[in-house]
């Protein structure tokens, strides 16, 4: 049979209540506080990770935008350089054409001057030959045969001098 002693039951119940309160105060309370601290710490880390992810996505978008901008800027710079090079090429070609035109004009002028000089020299030589022929005709008082030979001689010399200057 079981003997139940009332004061012993009350004392046991009081001991259990005191034990429960002490356990709650010294064991369950600190453990709960530590769990709460860890929960707050984990939530903070999750929040930081979420913020870091958002920041990383924003940076990624900024980098992609700047890369696209750089690509566009590079294309613009290349187009501008091509246009400048084309303009410079055109300018150089025009300068070369003008320079070539001047050289051709100078050459034509030189040829014209040389031709005129050669004509003047031939005219002076022909005049000299005519004077020589006239003096021979007058000095010899020659006959028709002599005049004919002088005429042929004159033509031969005039033709020879004309041939040598034209070469």
From TrEMBL:
Write out the entry's keywords from A to Z: ATP synthesis, Cell membrane, CF(0), Hydrogen ion transport, Ion transport, Membrane, Transmembrane, Transmembrane helix, Transport
Query: Which CDD domains does UniProt cross-reference here?
Result: ATP-synt_Fo_b (cd06503)
**Which Pfam families does this UniProt record tie to the protein?**
ATP-synt_B (PF00430)
Q: Is Cell membrane among the key words of this record?
A: yes
Q: Does the keyword Transmembrane apply?
A: yes
Membrane topology, record value: Single-pass membrane protein
What are this entry's molecular-function GO terms?
proton-transporting ATP synthase activity, rotational mechanism; proton-transporting ATPase activity, rotational mechanism
Record-linked SUPFAM superfamilies: F1F0 ATP synthase subunit B, membrane domain (SSF81573)
Membrane-crossing ranges are 6-23
Where, subcellularly, is it found?
Cell membrane; Endomembrane system
Show the GO cellular component annotation of the record: endomembrane system; plasma membrane; proton-transporting ATP synthase complex
What InterPro entries would the database entry show?
Answer: ATP_synth_B-like_membr_sf (IPR028987), ATP_synth_b/b'su_bac/chlpt (IPR002146), ATP_synth_F0_bsu_bac (IPR005864), ATP_synthase_B_chain (IPR050059)
Question: Could you tell me what this protein does?
Answer: Component of the F(0) channel, it forms part of the peripheral stalk, linking F(1) to F(0).
Regarding protein family, the annotation reads: Belongs to the ATPase B chain family.
Q: How does it assemble?
A: F-type ATPases have 2 components, F(1) - the catalytic core - and F(0) - the membrane proton channel. F(1) has five subunits: alpha(3), beta(3), gamma(1), delta(1), epsilon(1). F(0) has three main subunits: a(1), b(2) and c(10-14). The alpha and beta chains form an alternating ring which encloses part of the gamma chain. F(1) is attached to F(0) by a central stalk formed by the gamma and epsilon chains, while a peripheral stalk is formed by the delta and b chains.
Q: What is this protein called?
A: ATP synthase subunit b
What gene is it encoded by?
A: atpF
């Amino acid at each position: 049979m079981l003997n139940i002693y009332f004061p012993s039951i009350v004392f046991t119940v009081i001991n259990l209540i005191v034990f429960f309160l002490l356990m709650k105060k010294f064991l369950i309370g600190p453990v709960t506080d530590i769990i709460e601290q860890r929960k707050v710490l984990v939530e903070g880390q999750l929040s930081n990770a979420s913020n870091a992810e958002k920041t990383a996505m924003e940076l990624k978008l900024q980098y992609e935008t700047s890369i696209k901008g750089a690509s566009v800027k590079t294309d613009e710079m290349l187009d501008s350089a091509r246009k400048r090079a084309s303009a410079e090429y055109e300018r150089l070609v025009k300068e070369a054409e003008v320079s070539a035109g001047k050289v051709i004009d100078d050459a034509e002028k030189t040829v014209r001057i040389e031709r005129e000089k050669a004509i003047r020299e031939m005219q002076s030589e022909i005049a000299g030959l005519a004077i020589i022929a006239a003096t021979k005709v007058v000095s010899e008082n020659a006959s028709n045969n002599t005049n004919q030979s002088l005429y042929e001689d004159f033509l031969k010399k005039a033709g020879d001098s004309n041939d040598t200057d034209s070469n």
